[in-house]
Write a structure and sequence with these properties.
Structural class: alpha+beta
Strand content: 5-15%
Order of helices and strands: HHHHHHHHHEEEEE
Largest sheet: 5 strands, mixed
Number of helices: 9
Helix content: 40-55%
Oligomer: single chain
Distance between the termini: 41 Å
Number of strands: 5
Number of domains: 3
Length: 220
């Protein structure tokens, strides 16, 4: 999988893929992330589908979209809607920029796609890429929502959790403040984190994208 594509995934889906790559079962991941196993399965399946579609998505720019749609005689509203949508992958952000409703944006996208792009039979490279990319973007909007798009202000972390453990897990080396360690046994095996405190409780902040999860246990 392309690291660039994986980095675009929602934080939760990135965590799930990372944990699966580390050999963790979906049942373990559900316990680690405090979710149900069916929810983990759904997000894993969703992540794989996103990556498969994104891999096939031709690269285009809003400027190329405008040029092709102007050539095809599209109205300015439809050109703006498609250009903003290609830039943001978000119908809600497109609606905000245009000062209109998401319903109006959806109508403009479908009109631009069906009337001006899908029936464009040109094999010229730019027009082919714009036609193919816009078709995927408009027809599969769910695969482009909630992505890690900092340009429109998505927040990576969603919650903070502290879990108290009766006994500390086995670590790759002795915990020292400000030092990274890897957990070598138990539920959190193979997860890495940063030691924040060692007295009176050892506090380990795990390396997760979707939540701030800290483990605490009595210092030995």
């Amino acid at each position: 999988m392309s690291p660039e594509l994986v980095a675009r995934l929602p934080a939760l889906e990135r965590d799930i893929l990372e944990l699966i790559d580390r050999g963790r079962s979906q049942a373990d991941i559900a316990r680690i992330l405090s979710m149900s196993q069916p929810a983990i399965y759904y997000r894993f399946k969703r992540a794989k589908e996103r990556l498969q579609v994104w891999k096939l998505l031709p690269k285009i720019t809003p400027q190329e979209v405008r040029a092709v749609m102007e050539l095809r005689g599209a109205r300015e509203t439809d050109i703006q809607a498609m250009s903003f949508y290609v830039e943001t992958n978000s119908q809600s952000e497109t609606a905000r920029r245009m000062g209109t409703s998401q319903g109006a944006v959806r109508e403009a996208l479908m009109r631009g796609l069906v009337k001006h792009l899908q029936n464009d039979m040109s094999q010229e490279d730019r027009r082919t890429r714009v036609r193919q990319a816009c078709s995927i973007l408009v027809n599969k909007p769910g695969l482009f929502t909630d992505v890690n798009n900092t340009a429109i202000g998505h927040v990576a972390k969603s919650r903070t959790t502290v879990r108290r453990l009766v006994n500390g897990p086995k670590l790759s080396h002795r915990p020292l403040e400000g030092i990274g360690v890897e957990i070598e046994d138990g539920l959190y095996k193979s997860l890495c984190g940063m030691v924040e405190e060692v007295e009176p409780l050892v506090t380990l902040k795990l390396d997760l994208a979707s939540q701030d999860l800290r483990l605490q246990w009595p210092a030995s």
